[in-house]
């Protein structure tokens, strides 16, 4: 898909068609990393987890010896039954 680099104030910018952003799973306002590699401009999303994920897959990535610490919530504030 062809587009043009346009001048915006003191900078230059590219407008991305909705279809391209949808295919790349990038949304408006999302941070991206821009670099030049071998004469090409490369744009990558900054966020580590992209798209949908399942709890099962995330739990499989946890270390087997992981034990969460306890949180001190303080004394009861009402009629809680602990």
UniProtKB/TrEMBL annotation:
UniProt xrefs under Pfam families: MazE_antitoxin
InterPro entries with a match to the protein in the record: Antitox_PemI-like (IPR039052), SpoVT-AbrB_dom (IPR007159), SpoVT-AbrB_sf (IPR037914)
PANTHER family: ANTITOXIN CHPS-RELATED (PTHR40516:SF1)
Upper taxonomic lineage: Bacteria, Raymondiibacteriota
UniProt-recorded name of the protein: Transcriptional regulator/antitoxin, MazE
SMART domains: SpoVT_AbrB
Occurrences of domain SpoVT-AbrB (ranges): 3-48
The entry's keywords: DNA-binding
GO molecular function term, any single one: DNA binding
